[in-house]
Design brief:
It is a single chain. The protein has helices at residues 41-62, 81-93, 98-112; strands spanning 4-7, 10-17, 22-28, 35-38, 118-119, 125-127. It has a four-stranded antiparallel β-sheet with strand order 1-2-3-4, with helices on one face. A two-stranded antiparallel ribbon has the order 5-6. 39% of the residues lie in helices and 22% in strands. The protein has 128 residues and is of the alpha+beta class. The protein is built from three helices and six strands; from the N terminus they run E-E-E-E-H-H-H-E-E. Helix 2 (81-93) packs across helix 3. It has two domains: 4-62, Double Stranded RNA Binding Domain; 81-127, no CATH class.
């Protein structure tokens, strides 16, 4: 089973709980914690869509215009020193800063990644 569910513009991660004998899901990419569960895959998917609809309704009632989590555009990555060195050299050889080299590498990877759900900066699906 794929551990990711998709509904509308939302994704959720899923784990199986032996203790509860149920699938437990959590909506990702939002500023709240929203979880759901189901005894079967069918129940889980239904609970996920209900959780998303409830969350959208909650945001509407609270006046939250953008229910998706906002990102700053800044993040740290941890790589080994040799990869850091090689990347810095490659960036220089291509006339780029390390930051722009990494940004372009991520954009290229997303373009060719085996994903069926990625949103563009404008919120449009760029892979379907």
């Amino acid at each position: 089973m794929n551990n990711i569910l998709k509904y509308k513009d939302f994704i959720a991660t899923v784990k199986y709980s032996d203790e509860d004998e149920a699938f437990i899901g959590r909506i990702e990419g939002i500023d709240s914690v929203v979880s759901f569960e189901g005894q079967s895959v069918e129940e889980l998917k239904s609970a996920f869509s209900e959780a998303v609809e409830s969350y959208i309704d909650f945001c509407r009632r609270k006046g939250i215009a953008h229910p998706q989590k906002s990102y700053t555009g800044v993040f740290n990555i941890r790589i080994n020193s040799d990869l850091h060195r090689r990347t810095a050299i490659a960036a220089k050889l291509h006339g780029n800063t390390l930051n722009s080299f990494v940004k372009e590498s991520i954009e290229r990877r997303l373009k060719y990644a085996d994903l069926d759900y990625v949103l563009s900066a404008e919120g449009q699906k760029i892979v379907s």
